[in-house]
Design goal:
320 residues; alpha/beta; Rossmann fold; 2 domains; six-stranded parallel beta sheet; three-stranded parallel beta sheet; 12 helices; 36% helix; globular
């Protein structure tokens, strides 16, 4: 897999979409977070759009071949009718883009002192290591959502739940409660930002009352990170209503009856997550991260997917 496409998709996935001669969209909306500027989306490609709802066709991107069908049936039929072709030149280009931009937006954790704040990608990678790929991760909305999609990696369907482009802050905790209720034997972790957590934190009392062993990781950057990022990049650093006060989440969780701890150092992170994993009941791990953290790759609003921004510049000749 090349990773996800769109506003915070990988460089190689976005470039592949822009340079492809065929794009097949299955059960998707071709929304603005994927398409960007519609007139410049995948300019060389014929678009095949598979969906069960005929009203989905042509809303944003014109479908050259609209297919009204169940996704599974359509894909089975497609694979039965498609033979092998030599695409070595295309795969070589894909591997080249992936290799050239493998570090886009990443932070070298080894260069950070143990007593400094952990980064969100480090939280995601550490959580992946602690869980061993066996748990279900439910993400709220914000920068942490993008970092999970970029840095975690999942083995099976249903392991990563998020409301996606709907943008429903506060989603993760009640959604994780639903997963745990439906499958009590499954390890379920809710990863939330400090902003989204305050929108549904009252459900901690429901966790305790229902004895649901959901594990909550609060990625605490002391702000609405995605909003702050846009204000920094596109609004001259005017941070309007994005840097907000907050309670002590450890004390709040303990007041509801949860086991809780706070992490402010990189060298405390893994031990805190392991303790939470071993605790038999609901837990909250409040992990402080840098306020100025920014999610890359990034395609600015109104641009096409080939206009990818990284910490380091991307070759503009590959863009739109």
């Amino acid at each position: 897999s090349l990773g996800m496409v769109g506003m915070h998709g990988t460089v190689q996935a976005n470039l592949a979409m822009q340079h492809a001669d065929l794009v097949i969209g299955v059960g998707m909306r071709f929304d603005d977070r994927v398409v960007g500027r519609p007139k410049d989306f995948a300019p060389h490609a014929r678009v095949v759009h598979v969906d069960v709802d005929p009203k989905a066709f042509g809303r944003v991107v014109r479908a050259d071949v609209p297919v009204l069908a169940d996704a599974g049936a359509a894909l089975r039929g497609l694979t039965q009718r498609t033979g092998w072709q030599d695409r070595s030149e295309w795969w070589s280009a894909l591997r080249g883009w992936a290799g050239a931009h493998a570090t886009c937006g990443t932070v070298d954790d080894a260069s950070t002192a143990p007593d400094e704040l952990p980064t969100t990608p480090e939280i995601v990678r550490t959580l992946r290591r602690v869980l061993g790929g066996a748990a279900t991760v439910v993400s709220d909305i914000g920068q942490h959502q993008m970092f999970i999609a970029l840095h975690h990696g999942f083995e099976r369907p249903g392991q990563f739940l998020t409301s996606g482009g709907l943008g429903t802050m506060g989603y993760a905790l009640p959604a994780a409660m639903g997963v745990k209720t439906a499958e009590p034997g499954r390890s379920v972790w809710a990863v939330v930002g400090d902003g989204g957590f305050q929108m549904s934190a009252a459900e901690l009392s429901t966790l305790v009352a229902s004895n649901l062993a959901v594990k909550v990781v609060v990625v605490n950057n002391q702000c609405l990170g995605m909003v702050r990022q846009w204000q920094e990049l596109f609004y001259d650093g005017v941070y309007s209503e994005s840097l907000l006060p907050q309670p002590d989440f450890q004390k709040l969780a303990e007041a509801h009856g949860c086991w809780a701890t706070t992490v402010r150092r990189r060298d405390e992170l893994e031990q805190a997550l392991r303790e939470a994993a071993l605790h038999p009941g609901p837990t909250v791990v409040d992990v402080h991260v840098p306020v100025e953290e920014t999610v890359y790759p990034m395609v600015p609003a109104g641009a096409c997917p080939g206009d990818v921004r990284c910490v380091d510049p991307v070759d503009s000749s590959l863009g739109c």
